[in-house]
Structures are given as structure tokens and as C-alpha cells.
Design a protein that fits this description.
Distance between the termini: 45 Å
Structural class: alpha+beta
Largest sheet: 6 strands, mixed
Number of domains: 1
Strand order of the largest sheet: 7-6-9-10-1-11
Number of helices: 9
Strand content: 25-35%
Shape: globular
Order of helices and strands: EEEHHEEEEHHEEHHHEHEH
Helix content: 25-40%
CATH superfamily: PPM-type phosphatase domain
CATH architecture: 4-Layer Sandwich
CATH topology: Phosphatase 2c, domain 1
Radius of gyration: 17 Å
């Protein structure tokens, strides 16, 4: 079964900003329905942005796989190929040694959305004004919280709070977490890098998305708020809204208020 979809993306928006404390932007984002991807690179020199760009470019180049294979298997294959390309590049050039990237991808198919995650970039879903985090951070501190060794409040100030336990490109193989979620009309999905999630609380995130008229202005507000609160990291936000099935047929034009093409593989100038 491929990804011919009864659920339809009827609005989307994405943008990425360096934040206030980073000289470069190592985040990358891609979004062409039915596939959406956020990658948050890590590594010295230009390693992080190279890793994130390789991951996003692999998903872009191989996106047609999502129409031919089972959704979970397609995402697993794309993650594996991205990982191999990043790992191989790191072996070729000493300045890229140890580089890697987080990755969160969402594929809309049938009456569902399948999400694949490596690292701590997050996926959320707003449904009927209730916000749910669909991914679990793959980080050292998040694991300690799950084990009860740290409280969420202690985790916010832990010196290793930015250390991920899983990333693309740092090992020869990586296993993504993949989950499928049933779609409902009006669902809004959020993919974001840690530059948003660590600066904007879930309650504020829910309020801004729930009260926004258009996803384009919502994206702008979220990035502005993350910067107002310090802008400690690169900030990337990707939003898309679903309609299913009767409602999807009524709307024939996708509202695209993003700068996806510009930020997918090229560095944005710092403001």
C-alpha cells in the first residue's frame, strides 16, 4: 500500500531562524505534501549544517518512495539512507568527524500521519484545542526523567540537557522511532527543532496555534517568541493542517505561506 491519501494537507507553513546567539543556522526544513521534515544539525565548523542538509536533501530526492512503499518502511529506508550519507561524508573529511543531526519527519497517507524521529526535534498535534506531544525526546536527560532519576524541573537546568542519545550520522546504523497516528479533520501538526521547544512552553505553543488565523502568521509568532525569550538556539517551525475526506474534497487549493524552498538546503542570512 502506498501513500495515496484520503487525508489532505490544506495549509502549510515553515520557516527557520538562526536565533540570537548562534552565528549560523544548522537547522534545515523540507515540506512538500505529503512529506515534512525538520533536521537540527550538530558538529563543529560547518558539520552540523552539512549533516542536516544531507538528511533533508535525501528525503527530498527520494520522496517518491513514499508513494510506492508502506509508510513506516518508506520512512525507515529514508532514515537509513540519510544516516549512511552523513556517516560516509564524516569519514571522508576530518573537519566533519562526529557530525550528525536530529530528524523528525511526518508522512501524510490514507487517513493517518506516520512520524519518524531520531534525536530531540519534536512533533506535536493540535486537535480540538488540545496539544499532544507525539514524540519522546531521545536525549540523556529525557531518559533520566523517564526513569525517575530527574524531575522535569531539574532537567531544564541539567548541564547535559542538550546531549542527544541518538542522531543521524554518528554511527553506521541508527534506529528511528516510528509511530502512526489516525488523522482527523482540522488536525494541525507541528514539527520543530529544540530552539523552539526549549524556549516556548507547551501551554504557550498550544495557545498561539489554537488562536492563530493562518499558519503563516502563527509560524512568525512562534519564532518571534522564541527569540524574545532568548533565542538560545536555531529555531525551526513547520506546521501543516489536515482535512479529511469530505472536507478535503471541498478545498482544492493548498494555502502555502512558507519559505520552505528557501530554507530547505540553503543558509539564511542572519538578521
Amino acid at each position: 500500500m502506498g501513500s495515496k491519501s484520503n487525508a489532505r494537507v490544506v495549509e502549510r507553513s515553515a520557516d527557520s531562524d538562526p536565533g540570537r546567539k548562534r552565528a549560523t543556522n544548522q537547522d534545515r526544513v523540507y515540506g512538500e505534501a505529503p512529506l515534512f521534515v525538520v533536521a537540527d544539525g550538530m558538529g563543529g565548523h560547518q558539520g552540523g549544517e552539512v549533516a542536516a542538509a544531507l538528511a533533508v536533501e535525501t528525503f527530498r530526492e527520494k520522496a517518491q518512495l513514499c508513494t510506492r512503499a508502506e509508510p513506516a518502511e518508506a520512512l525507515r529506508t529514508l532514515v537509513a539512507e540519510s544516516n549512511s550519507r552523513i556517516y560516509a561524508r564524516a569519514q571522508e573529511r576530518s573537519e566533519y568527524k562526529g557530525m550528525g543531526t536530529t530528524l523528525t519527519a511526518a508522512l501524510v497517507h490514507d487517513d493517518a500521519v506516520t512520524v519518524a524521529q531520531v534525536g530531540d526535534s519534536r512533533a506535536y498535534r493540535l486537535r480540538a484545542d488540545a496539544l499532544e506531544q507525539l514524540t519522546e525526546d531521545q536525549s540523556v536527560v529525557a531518559e533520566l526523567v523517564r526513569l525517575g532519576a530527574l524531575t522535569p524541573e531539574e532537567a531544564e537546568h541539567h548541564p547535559q540537557r542538550s546531549l542527544v542519545s541518538r542522531a543521524l550520522g554518528t554511527q553506521e546504523q541508527v534506529e528511528p522511532e516510528i509511530r502512526t497516528h489516525a488523522a482527523e479533520d482540522g488536525d494541525i501538526y507541528v514539527l520543530c527543532s529544540v530552539g523552539l521547544s526549549k524556549m516556548v512552553s507547551d501551554s504557550l505553543l498550544r495557545e498561539i496555534i489554537a488562536t492563530g488565523e493562518r499558519l503563516g502568521s502563527t509560524t512568525e509568532k512562534l519564532i518571534a517568541l522564541a527569540n524574545e525569550r532568548g533565542g538560545d538556539d536555531n529555531i525551526t517551525v513547520c506546521l501543516f493542517r489536515l482535512a479529511v475526506p469530505d472536507e478535503a474534497r471541498k478545498q482544492t487549493t493548498v494555502i502555502d505561506q512558507s519559505v520552505i524552498a528557501r530554507v530547505a538546503t540553503a543558509e539564511r542570512p542572519q538578521k
